[in-house]
Amino acid sequence: MDTILSIKDLTISFQTLDGKVAAVRGVNLDLKRGETLAIVGESGSGKSVSVKAINRILPKRNTIYEKGEIIYENRNLLALSETEMEDVRGKKIAMIFQDPMTSLNPTMKVGNQIAESVLVKEKIPKAEAWKKAVELLGLVGIRNPEASANCYPHQFSGGMRQRVMIALSLACKPDILIADEPTTALDVTIQAQILDLIEELKVKLGTSVIFITHDLGVVAHVADRVAVMYAGRIVEVGTAEEIFYNPQHPYTWGLICSMPSMNTDTNQLYSIPGAPPNSLKVIKGDAFAPRNRYALAIDFEEEPPYFKVSETHYAATWLLHPSAPKVELPAEIKRRHKIFADMVAKKEWGND
Questions:
Q1: Could you give the angle at the alpha carbon of 168 between the alpha carbons of 164 and 171, nearest 5°?
Q2: What is the pTM of this model?
């Protein structure tokens, strides 16, 4: 698959009253055409900041793009004017946000909101835009779309509002769809339906998807490739099977061990000790070192480069250096491999 979007050395800070906060630190990431790329990590790891930078929707008053490029259609999106970005944002690269109730206009009928997006981007007659809005509501599985188009957001359930948001994001048939934790507020049954819907529409429309989440169950359900992010940096990237079956970074080990499951034989949940570093301070060495029980002396002095595990799998950990001591996978991960032996292949995680 060819690359449709490329993020190169993206570094973003926020100016605050307390000083400059380093939110994203040298992110390099490619999105392949037709794939689903999941970016996973704890809250505050820089996931949402990274993808919001793609559409340039970060607050202008205090966002500092220190360096880097975001290449789409042979253009650096960070160098485009606001007028040029208007032709990209929503039309070529669309977003589904976490909370549809705050993203949808409560004073407008949902059909008008979708039609308005089409009118602005495609310059077609109002009647045609309304017809397309109704078709999109039907496409995302809303029953009786003609009547539903005349309803307001508060008249829908949370799952139905998220379907409306998906219809709104697909209004102009974008090349790339960014889903920023779109199932967080939904119960597990509706969550599974929304995930299946996004996957179905991706295949049907040929859209590439970037999926932001902290839930590894969701990742295993939807992702072709996974990027693990910590303290503003990608620490590991690989196919879903590589990340779940052959994780290399201790932070990835911690995330997998922290994933709850009904199939465990213990009533205790694992948690990664400690807390992420203070982004107001300069990070020396590996940002995860203070929380890493496998940390080496060099982890506290020098940031690790990316080591190649396979053609598609890279991890930034000194444990992969040829001179590093050999460390086996934690017993908990080995146990989970037995419990979830076929769940990655069947993409059944997230339905527990």
A1: 135
A2: 0.90
